[in-house]
Amino acid sequence: MTPYIQGALPTDDHPTVGDWLLVDDATLLPVRVLPRMNLFKRRSPGDPRRDQMIAANVDTVFVVASCNQDFSVARLERYLVLAREVGVTPVVILTKADLTDTPELFVTAARALEPGLRVETVNGRDPGDVVRLAAYCGPGRTVAFLGSSGVGKSTLVNSLRGSDSIATQAIRAHDGTGRHTTTVREMHRLPQGGWLLDTPGMRELQLSDAAAGIAEVFDDFALAAQDCRFSDCSHGVEPGCAVRAGIDSGALTAERFDRWRRLAVEEKTNADRLTKRWLR
How far is CA 12 from its chain centroid? Predict the structure, then answer.
């Protein structure tokens, strides 16, 4: 945000990428941020008492990951929780599919996270391949790119825009890993009338105020928990725990259970810290 905008708006009304501002005709200074359709945010890195805004007014979020050793199911789940929390449709974009002999393994792992989850594999440097993603970026639509550093978000944005104006870095040949390039959040207009929001790669994605998103992404566990004998069941050693019964029967997996509990504890801890800050 420029000092020009920062100084013109109240401290509690700062915009983020994707926001629309009401501007004074005479002074051309922003008056206020217009009401948001939605807002992506995370716990601010280095300060558990604050949230950091990521993007606003998004229709579709491209969760970008690479088909290499950096692929992480747990990381994808975090991004899906963010999307579901604010009611935005996620699409998992698997890049560098041309650099692996088994892209279908990555697709299968991603699709297993949610029934009906849309998953696309692309070679970001092949415009003919990337053009399939243009269907999500029609007139009046806003698509945000989220993902870790070096997964190829800026390359995809360049291909969709038909431009190479955004700096990108070459990948390492031995492991297909890219390097962090984007350092600011940017909004790009597409020729067909859509908008792309490019964001820097996130090394840390801590969740807060995302209980509904966790319940939706992990709906299998949330539904099972409703059948526990005790409403405050911790799914440990309590009798009548439907979640533990599901794990024992094979209907639920222990690995996914651990990730669900970890995110739930993290979300509650961060949300409590934010609440205490606002009550001071």
Answer: 24
Backbone angles phi, psi at 94, to 5 degrees: -100, 110
Whether the per-residue pLDDT at 103 is higher than 90: the answer is: yes
pLDDT for 156 equals 92
Mark out the alpha helices in the chain (DSSP H runs): 3-8, 73-85, 103-111, 127-130, 153-161, 211-217, 219-225, 242-249, 254-279
For residues 149 and 126, give the distance between their C-alpha atoms in angstroms, rounded to a whole number: 20
Q: DSSP assignment, residue 268?
A: H
218-279 matches 53-198 in CATH topology: no
Q: Say which residue the tokens 């990108």 belong to.
A: 168
Structure token digits, residue 104: 């279908």
What whole-number distance in Å separates Cα of residue 63 and Cα of residue 226?
A: 30
Residue that has been written with the tokens 């005709």 in this structure: 25
Domain boundaries in the chain? Answer: 53-198, 218-279
Are the CB atoms for 138 and 109 separated by under 8 Å?
A: no
Q: pTM of the full predicted structure?
A: 0.84
Amino acid at 76: L
Q: How far lies 152's CA from each of 7, 146, 174, 196, 264, in Å?
A: 34, 10, 16, 14, 30
Distance of alpha carbon 258 from alpha carbon 74, whole angstroms:
10
Place 8 in a pLDDT band, splitting at 50, 70 and 90: low
Instruction: Among 3.40.50.10610, 3.40.50.300, 3.90.170.10, 3.40.50.150, name the CATH number for the domain at 53-198.
Output: 3.40.50.300
Tell me the helix, strand and coil percentages in the chain, rounded to 5: 35, 20, 45
Q: H-helix or E-strand containing 266? A: helix 254-279
> Is CATH 3.40.50.720 correct for 218-279?
no
Look-up of token digits 């805004």: 53
Q: What is the mean pLDDT of residues 194-209?
A: 86
Neighbours of 174 (CB within 10 A): 6
Beta-carbon neighbour count of residue 110 at 10 Å? 23
